[in-house]
Amino acid sequence: MSRYTSATPADRAEMLAAIGVGSTDDLFDQIPEPLRLGRPLALPAGISEAEVYERLAELAARNADADAQVCFLGAGMYDHYVPAIVDAITQRSEFLTPYTPYQPEISQGGLQAMFEFQTAISELTALPVSNAGLYEGPSSVASAAYLALGAGKGRRRFVVSRGLHPHSRETLATYCEGYDAAIAEVGLEDGVTDAAALAAAVDGETAAVFLQSPNFLGAIEDVEALGAAAKQHGALLVVAVDPMTLGVLRPPGECGADIALGEGQPLGNRLDFGGPSFGFFAGSEELLRKMPGRIAGETDDVDGRRGFVLALQTREQHIRREKATHNICTAQALNALAATIHLAWLGREGFRELGELLVRRTAYARERLAATPGVELLHEAPVAREFALRLAAPVDQVLERCAERGIAAGYPLGREYSEYEDGLLVAITERRSRQQIDDLAEALGAAIEAESGELVANSATKSPGGP
Amino acid sequence: MSRYTSATPADRAEMLAAIGVGSTDDLFDQIPEPLRLGRPLALPAGISEAEVYERLAELAARNADADAQVCFLGAGMYDHYVPAIVDAITQRSEFLTPYTPYQPEISQGGLQAMFEFQTAISELTALPVSNAGLYEGPSSVASAAYLALGAGKGRRRFVVSRGLHPHSRETLATYCEGYDAAIAEVGLEDGVTDAAALAAAVDGETAAVFLQSPNFLGAIEDVEALGAAAKQHGALLVVAVDPMTLGVLRPPGECGADIALGEGQPLGNRLDFGGPSFGFFAGSEELLRKMPGRIAGETDDVDGRRGFVLALQTREQHIRREKATHNICTAQALNALAATIHLAWLGREGFRELGELLVRRTAYARERLAATPGVELLHEAPVAREFALRLAAPVDQVLERCAERGIAAGYPLGREYSEYEDGLLVAITERRSRQQIDDLAEALGAAIEAESGELVANSATKSPGGP
Amino acid sequence: MPVDEIPMQRERAQTIFEKSKIGRRAGILPAAEVPEPPLEELIPARLLRAEPPRLPEVAEPEIVRHYNRLSRRNFDLDSGFYPLGSCTMKHNPRLNERVAALPGHARLHPAQDPRRAQGALELIWLLQESLAEICGLPHVSLQPSAGSHGELAGLLLTRAFHADRGEARTKVLAPDTSHGTNPASVTMAGYEIVKVATDERGGVEMDDLRAKVDDEVACLMLTNPNTLGLFDENIAEIASLIHAVGGTLYYDGANLNAVMGQSRPGDMGFDIVHVNLHKSFSQPHGGGGPGAGPIAVSERIEPFLPRPQVVRREGGNGSGPYFDLDHERPRSIGRLRGFQGNFGVFVRSYAYILSLGADGLAEASETAVLNANYLKARLAEGRAGKYLPVAFERHCMHEFVLSGKPMKRQLGIATLDLAKRLLDFGFHPPTVYFPLLVEEALMIEPTETETKESLDAFADAVEQILAEAEAGPEKAKEAPYTTPVRRLDEVKATRRPVVRQPL
Amino acid sequence: MPVDEIPMQRERAQTIFEKSKIGRRAGILPAAEVPEPPLEELIPARLLRAEPPRLPEVAEPEIVRHYNRLSRRNFDLDSGFYPLGSCTMKHNPRLNERVAALPGHARLHPAQDPRRAQGALELIWLLQESLAEICGLPHVSLQPSAGSHGELAGLLLTRAFHADRGEARTKVLAPDTSHGTNPASVTMAGYEIVKVATDERGGVEMDDLRAKVDDEVACLMLTNPNTLGLFDENIAEIASLIHAVGGTLYYDGANLNAVMGQSRPGDMGFDIVHVNLHKSFSQPHGGGGPGAGPIAVSERIEPFLPRPQVVRREGGNGSGPYFDLDHERPRSIGRLRGFQGNFGVFVRSYAYILSLGADGLAEASETAVLNANYLKARLAEGRAGKYLPVAFERHCMHEFVLSGKPMKRQLGIATLDLAKRLLDFGFHPPTVYFPLLVEEALMIEPTETETKESLDAFADAVEQILAEAEAGPEKAKEAPYTTPVRRLDEVKATRRPVVRQPL
Ligand SMILES: Cc1ncc(COP(=O)(O)O)c(C=O)c1O
Ligand SMILES: Cc1ncc(COP(=O)(O)O)c(C=O)c1O
């Protein structure tokens, strides 16, 4: 069994003597006998490091990761290249192992990193204040709703675009049970939010309007135009964005957003089957004291040295308790640090260039794939790094055939949108070369052709499924 | 092109102005025009980090590494498990990036690590003084010979057991061209050095006698008995050892060795297709001032604080130049650190247990394989972690068949020993489970059976070779 | 000897943005390989950004130096003793980082077809099973991202549970010693928090509890051992009181490190438990995350667990069992976040459980309790015993709370001063001023991975600081002296907040 | 403000052996899974060890802390400016560490059948080809483990080359500015070293050379640019002199960083070149290795290259080309070490070459020379210009040498004192007291990866130290003050050497 303890039998004897008990068992006396487990846990015995490694390597080998397959999956998390310095720095004990910086004098590294992160997010979103990060994307949407309720003096209604990530909409609905708030959803037209329907849905009871751009179908929304309705009724405009597009797309802060938030994974974080990553959350000056999460602020020490501390803690649960702006405590500091390093590595020029590269390769891929027999565009709206297609054959079987050729062709929209059973969402990153895009077109075409024939047979053998 | 430079056009202009030249080209004027390259190097243009990663990942994927195959290869380097803390610590910038510690006040980390390494090697070998490491195993043998020449007042002859690693014998021969020294080789009997022949080979001209235990065939030599001849004629006794066996095998220092050395890879170093690793080198007190390589020593600072420095530098090339005890400068400090951490992680008990585990699994494997039809022992001498077999079918073809089943069955002795064309050397580590050993027996048996028939045909198709 | 300024202090803070110089860069990108029309031809100009964000322009060597030097301005667990109460700062094995980084884990896309993510789903399932056994409750969801997220999940589960029975309850009880996230979560879940008093043994004041228990009570949230490090001996009675009125019992698992393999929340009568994988199960804290807050629940709560749930299915037509994401959960409260939770954290914690195994986990808790009681004993001696009495005089579990009240009155130094002075001795201070009901509280949790030598050194440092203070309070009041920065003006940071680098 | 002792200095050095306590341990092993007879039944008792080596007994958390804290007692390239002359302390890209760690590289056994190591052999071949182009010589062997190893290889090649022509020459020429490894290698190769003087331009004194060149000369070893950072303009004539008497010309490539893509040793007339991959090609120095010292040679030397050589072969029967280890080299000098050399280093350096490419390498050398000349110019100003004159007044290449002679005479502080005082300013000092012919030498190599700001800060620090010294020598003579330890007694360490922990 691997243990990480140091107490030798001799140590234990000395320590028990100092405590004044005969055995450690005596220390557990305070637990009423019937509540003592009194048996070993029904878990295997501990094993050596080499064996644990083997065991986990075996499990890992049974996943088709983005090295094993060419990955066109997106839907909120993307296969970007994470520079080596990100791992090298975030794996340093000094960043990896401390707790939340409650003692600023010995936590300047983490606190300054938070301050730099806030600055970077503020720049990306063109909004003046950012927190130091939240759990991840969808729950950040729910946190914005909580803020809106607090700010919205009694308003208990949210208007949400169907273009908002399904996980975000579902998470918001979950939280709203506790918020005692209602949600009105506005549909999509030609891939983007139905402007008329949105305008009609917003009213004086609306605490906030939620948009996403690019939306789940990859379409870039005209946030400013759509946001007018929110402004008109004094509702907060909350916009979820893909941070990797903000080098080229007009930032929420310039489109009238009160809050910009989103999933931070594309910035320096690996896929990790969905987490840990982080959520970013920026807002207008007025919202500073209503923000959820940690915020690092600049100050001086007694000798006048510049330093950083956790600012505005009076918002937080450990001070304000039931009146706190949020319940969050442990967040995702290390993931936010990874993002900060990645952004510094890309730099002003590199970040813009990356955005341009995504837009151009995506345009190429969209055209290339749309030209494939059996494939057509699901919508014609402008896109940045992801786009939706309609396939002339059952999507699952087509994906299966592509997978057999080592390609994860994309995300089947039918999983989340019954109206798009034939939809496929394809994501592009700088790691997806032109060659890989051409191979995808080839594979898709072949799969659709093959499927078009043998629908019946195929789907029969499929049904119950199994690995 | 990826660059790691910072000079912007503005910087360059300022710097050139300060220097007082118009262009960097002017600075290269001191190179006579005909010697200026005057064209770009015939190398590809630089590429991005993501692309370099892809390129090297493709190359790596075309190697059958010890994850891709079950590895029974040894012959001096072994597939031991390297604990995660070894990588975590050796990858810290503070250990990874400094130069040799010429400024001790800011190099205490590296110097103390050397001191700890020397202590560990001294303990393993049971010899009082160790240096901080040399390049690797075989060249350390040649370094010992150089020391022996220096110590041996005019003696220019070495007696070498054929059980010494072929690479060591060949390296020694290469160096001896410069040493102007002769080598007499002593053969093996029943797997171990022919004692009588050795006794006969050593004479008053002999500067040193070289043994290895376990020797290349895995056999444990009776170093003390064999060493008597060296003592008798006043030659140095140099013993190459496998450090991983020193938890259970009698250490060279207790067998009369004047110098113990060897390949350090098994201690905390990965396989790396053969390097970088390190060579260790320990000796008797008298040899301290004749040792090659760096040696860290303990001392105090002006305030009486304990500290460490490079000691006895007067032995070294940067001071003594042509009279130096060796020419080595850059060595393998980081690899020696990895060994030190690995040894601390194993600890006194773990190191002994590991030795016992190797001996027992090896005994099991040797018996199990010898019981396989078409397989017999090449020798019956006691072994610790590696042993030699004779196969009843052509070794290369047998290995090929095992490889097709994902097993690297061992090292074909014929590569280095014409007298053992049918020989196979099998190595065991704690990573080779009983199940894997049983699988090897099964695979070997099947391969031999299959080969026994179709020798002719098979070897025909084999000849020119190719991937 | 003439002394220069301490190197760390000499180096003034400068952000990466301030190191930016136009024209410098680190990363470069692959060539486009495709046609490169002006962006306006692909996206309407009004949707495009005029000026790129002003990210720093710095070459790679300087980025590396910036963050390496910054890192040294942190105190960390791999450098010294970190007895931060309630945070379980135990050793973070590097093995866990290694296995989490395997491409099969780290590079797996969350939307991958479950049939091609069987290893990941099995790992999740195995961790669910392990936590269920450790907590003594049959069902587990790993979705919550941290303890506070688990609390909210638990309260929403409670709400769904009552709603399902046609009830709308309004109150949630929690002791006055509860952690701040508890009341904050209660409010977010739409409930009203009701505080329960603490008795002289440090447990729940039973009379106060009885007085407050009624059928408006949806749930009681407890930490056991509680934030005083004390196990509530009345837990059985407490449970029956709550269950009698139909409420649920929620276990804040932040202190689970005290009872692994020793006692199980489920056996104590709890319905819902959250586990902080970044505490008891060795996920590094990362300076404030990531973590994970899985929840374990009883049968009656199971139908409401978040979607999707990882399940093990028997394979059709003879093929073996396989693992799947179950989205068909009609009574589920729904999602709490995207995808499957903090998988990378699950890998680390599962590796930790595999490493220690049944006996190792029990030994970890046993040693955590031993270390805490030993340090408590050491601090009952000498000056500490005089100026820093323990808040509740009985054996503690994995942590204990001292009161700095006599120290403040007799020596004129506050708990904060003691904490700051400890920094000069190379120790991370304990948690201070929590729990609230103990005046000048010092909450000390050594964890099982500390040596006796570390505990002794810490006790000696406290003794020395108190001795200094007997000579006069100044030394401690002005501390720290040797840290990268000294005491910081936190009021200024809140009064005139500067929360980003002006550019 | 009352100051405590600097934390680093307060912490006294204690070895891992001194932290050992019987019964503690970190690693555990898998179960044997096989019969476990007493060892005596498997191996004769006289061959067994009675007592295991006294390795430390420490649990993992304390091992991690020990080495983490130890690491902070090092100054490193990722923390600051490291202008150590002749050592090319340029940025070490982390990308190189990442690719070297890929299992296909890191876990590949050196005895693997070449047919199953094609990726590794191709990488070696590609690196050979790249270095051949950079050096301007057709053939490369990667076998030598460091520069000094390459030197010995080159001298043994020279010996074999002459022997092959039936000659036994005795002398090897090298300038008095040569690095210590040169003469040391000469002796190991069985030759006699003959020093050649340096002229007033810092190059080889041609008359002295002519006087010493005869048919006993086996080889001339040169570093060009030499250790003064100066390019020898007479190189063409030097080469023809040596070739005229049938000697070989050896290029010590330690300074190749000055001329990559600018000028090639082969074109200068050299027969044999060693390259320090741990200098020009970004392999991290590791506190004293690992490195690698590949050699590039001309056609006439090729037959003697070490065994085995990695070669590209045309595949039989239509299959494409493949890579192999060629052991059949009858005239080879043989092996210099085991297996195929420091492959892990090759991976890093090849990744570096791929990253920079042709233009990037040329730009690196160009910027290295620019940085050196700029810093030289900065140090020609003010006090530095007065007390620290440059040894040879001309443009330098990638490094330059100052003389502390006036400083010593006029201010009473030696080069060593200046170096030690620089430590307090957070800089690694230049190489000192080398080359030997410059009195009180300071050899400064900034490298291309430093910013102008770093160079300016360094120049300012030197200025400030000299200003301090004008006020009196004590400050520098007692320096450093802020390092983990202060000046150490090196004499004691050699007089009464303690080279291991007594147990
Ligand atoms: C007692 C207690 N409850 C809840 C929490 C909240 O856990 P988390 O930080 O994971 O949200 C903490 C963490 O500090 C705690 O100590
Ligand atoms: C000029 C010169 N030659 C040779 C060497 C020796 O190289 P290595 O340390 O790689 O053996 C060095 C390294 O310091 C050097 O600077």
Strand content of chain A: 5-15%
How much is the average pLDDT of chain A? 95
Output mean pLDDT of chain C. Answer: 97
The share of residues in extended strands of chain C comes to 5-15%
Give helix % range of chain C: 25-40%
What is the overall shape of chain C? globular
Gyration radius of chain C, rounded? 26 Å
Order of helices and strands of chain C: HHHHHEHEHEHEHEHEEEEHHEHHEEHHH
Which structural class do the helices and strands of chain A define? alpha/beta
Strands ordered across the widest β-sheet of chain A: 2-10-9-8-7-3-4
Distance between the termini of chain A: 33 Å
Question: What small-molecule ligands were found?
Answer: pyridoxal-5'-phosphate
Strand order of the largest sheet of chain C: 1-7-6-5-4-2-3
Give the C-alpha Rg of chain A.
26 Å
Largest sheet of chain C: 7 strands, mixed
> What would you call the quaternary organization?
heterotetramer
Most extensive interface, chain pair and sizes: A-C, 213 and 219 residues
Main pleated sheet of chain A:
7 strands, mixed
Main attributes?
heterotetramer; A: 7-stranded mixed sheet; 4-stranded antiparallel sheet; 39% helix; 15% strand; C: alpha/beta; 7-stranded mixed sheet; 12 strands; globular; binds pyridoxal-5'-phosphate
Can you describe what's shown?
The complex is a heterotetramer, with two copies of chain A (about 475 residues) and two copies of chain C (about 500 residues). By secondary structure, chain A is of the alpha/beta class. Helices cover about 40% and strands about 15% of the residues of chain A. Chain A has helices at about 10-20, 25, 50-60, 85-90, 95, 110-125, 135-150, 165-180, 195-200, 225-230, 315-320, 335-370, 395-405, 435-455, 455-460; strands at about 70, 130, 155-160, 180-185, 190, 190-195, 205-215, 235-240, 260-265, 280-285, 295-300, 305-310, 375, 385-390, 405-410, 410, 425. In chain A, the strands form five sheets. Chain A has a seven-stranded mixed β-sheet, with helices on both faces. In chain A, helix 7 (about 135-150) packs parallel to helix 8. Chain C has about 500 residues and is of the alpha/beta class. Helices cover about 35% and strands about 10% of the residues of chain C. Chain C has 17 helices and twelve strands. Chain C has helices at about 5-10, 60-70, 95-100, 105, 120-135, 145-165, 180-190, 205-210, 235-245, 265-270, 345-380, 380-385, 405-410, 415-425, 450-470, 475-480, 490-495; strands at about 140, 170-175, 190-195, 215-220, 250, 270-275, 295, 310-315, 320-325, 400-405, 430, 440-445. In chain C, the strands form three sheets. Chain C has a seven-stranded mixed β-sheet with strand order 1-7-6-5-4-2-3, with helices on both faces. In chain C, strands 10-12-11 form a three-stranded antiparallel β-sheet. Chain C is globular. Chains in contact: A-B, A-C, A-D, B-C, B-D, C-D. The interface between A and D is medium-sized, with 22 and 20 residues. One pyridoxal-5'-phosphate (PLP) binds near residues 86, 148, 179, 181 and 291 of chain D. The site of one pyridoxal-5'-phosphate has 14 residues of chain C, from helix 6.
